[in-house]
Each structure stands twice: as structure tokens, then as C-alpha cells.
């Protein structure tokens, strides 16, 4: 592959990554706007953002607190892995920033959406989970720099030798527990729009949808037009941290 081909392929891959991040964040925003419970990844930032509106914390948007949380997750990876942390994984900071920024963009673009009735709330939650699953499936197919939430799962899994799937459950559960605790600390009560039935639904339904969607994404692979060995240039998913071949 020539330098020109690598450059074009790299650029195209990351344009598609940006599309996948947009879909993921649109799904996150729809789940939040449903008021039935946010997605796991946004539960803690939502709690802190609501506290900011009450003057209990710095007044940052959900996207702003998401960026801060992603930066903390990358910092934890460095602390846990130490010398084993690959500096190229610092690109997670860029992905984490884009993820938070796109959340705020999507809040702005969906400002017109009013989920005041149960039917509209359920519809928004369902649509959010489906769109989020599609975005995640695309993001995994892109094979680029991993998300901080996945990176911290890999880091702890590498240290503890706990399989990725089980460690992912532990990390997600920890985020939910921290969101619940913060809800009581900030507001003195459980906030169902932060952690609610929609959160539990998202935890299981999104994974189920990803399994349904992924086998039908052969066209996306062709769109990416991977070349042999190209993924070694971007060091994307968890398999690289475990030293497995692409």
C-alpha cells in the first residue's frame, strides 16, 4: 500500500468513525430526553450536570462532564498499566473529547423534541437504544482508537485477568452505582431520570441489538475497504493491548 493509499484509507476510516460516534451520542441524548433513565455511560455525567444546574457543582453540560469522565478513565488506565500503557492509546483523549462534544451538539439538534407523554418517552428510549447499538456496531467495525470506556475495561481486565465481557459488566455496574450514590449526595433522593427502568433496558437491549445488527454489516466492511495489515497502523481495539494479531 502506498503512502497516498494509506492516507486516504486512514482519513476515510476516521470519517466513518466520526459518523459512528455521532450515532452513539444521538442515542445517548434520546435516552436522556426520554426521562426514563439514561444510558450507563451518561448516567454519572448527567447526575453531575444536573447538580451543576442546582449550583452544587461547576455548571457544565452533560457533554462537558462526559469529556471530564473520559479523561479520568484514560488517566486510570495509565495508573493501572504504568509501563504497559501504550502511548498511542492517548488518542483515546481525542475520541473522548469528540464523544462529549457530539453529545452537546445532539442536545442542541434535538431541542425541539418534547417527551412529555409516556408514549413519547418509551419511543425516545427505544429509538435511542437502537441508534446507540447501530453506532457501537459501526465503531467496532471501524477498528480505530478504542473508546475510554472500553480502554479502562481492557486495562483492568489485563491486570486482573478477568475476561473482557465480565469486566465490562463490573465497570458498567460501578458507573451505575456511582450515579446512584451521587444522586443521593446531590439531591437527597433517587432520580429516576438518571437511573431508571430505561437504564436497565438499555444495558440489555443495546447488547442484544448489536448482536442482531453486526452479522448484517458486511457492506460496512466493504465501505471501509480494509487493506491487509492496515489496522496495525491505528492500534484500535482491545486485541492490541492483549497482543493478539488483527
Any key phrases for this structure?
246 residues, mainly alpha, 10 helices, globular
General description of the model:
The protein is globular, with a radius of gyration of 18 Å. By secondary structure, the protein is mainly alpha-helical. The chain has one domain. Helices cover about 70% and strands about 0% of the residues. The C terminus is likely disordered.
Instruction: Give the amount of beta strand, in percent.
Output: under 5%
Shape call: globular
Overall domain count = 1
Radius of gyration: 18 Å
How would you characterize the largest beta sheet? none
Tally of separate helices? 10
Average pLDDT, to the nearest integer?
85
| Number of DSSP E strands | 0
Spans of 5+ residues with little confidence (pLDDT < 50)? 226-246
Structural class: mainly alpha
Helix content: over 70%
| Oligomeric state of the chains in view | single chain
The sequence of SSEs as H and E is HHHHHHHHHH
N-end to C-end Cα span: 17 Å
Amino acid at each position: 500500500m502506498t503512502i497516498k493509499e494509506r492516507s486516504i484509507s486512514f482519513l476515510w476510516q476516521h470519517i466513518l468513525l466520526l459518523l459512528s460516534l455521532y450515532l452513539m451520542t444521538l442515542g445517548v441524548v434520546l435516552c436522556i430526553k426520554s426521562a426514563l433513565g439514561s444510558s450507563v455511560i451518561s448516567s454519572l455525567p448527567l447526575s453531575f450536570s444536573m447538580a451543576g444546574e442546582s449550583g452544587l457543582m461547576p455548571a457544565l453540560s452533560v457533554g462537558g462532564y462526559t469529556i471530564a469522565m473520559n479523561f479520568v478513565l484514560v488517566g486510570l488506565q495509565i495508573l493501572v498499566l504504568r509501563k504497559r500503557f501504550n502511548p498511542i492509546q492517548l488518542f483515546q483523549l481525542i475520541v473522548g473529547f469528540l464523544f462529549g462534544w457530539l453529545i452537546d451538539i445532539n442536545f442542541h439538534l434535538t431541542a425541539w423534541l418534547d417527551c412529555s407523554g409516556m408514549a413519547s418517552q418509551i419511543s425516545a428510549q427505544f429509538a435511542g437504544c437502537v441508534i446507540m447499538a447501530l453506532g457501537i456496531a459501526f465503531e467496532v467495525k471501524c477498528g480505530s482508537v478504542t473508546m475510554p470506556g472500553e480502554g479502562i475495561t481492557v486495562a483492568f481486565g489485563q491486570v486482573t485477568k478477568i475476561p473482557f465481557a465480565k469486566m465490562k459488566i463490573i465497570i458498567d455496574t460501578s458507573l451505575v452505582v456511582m450515579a446512584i450514590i451521587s444522586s443521593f449526595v446531590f439531591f437527597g433522593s433517587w432520580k429516576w431520570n438518571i437511573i431508571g427502568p430505561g437504564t436497565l433496558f438499555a444495558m440489555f437491549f443495546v447488547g442484544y441489538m448489536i448482536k442482531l445488527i453486526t452479522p448484517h454489516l458486511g457492506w460496512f466492511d466493504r465501505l471501509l475497504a480494509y487493506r491487509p495489515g492496515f489496522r496495525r497502523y491505528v492500534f484500535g481495539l482491545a486485541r492490541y493491548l492483549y497482543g493478539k494479531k488483527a
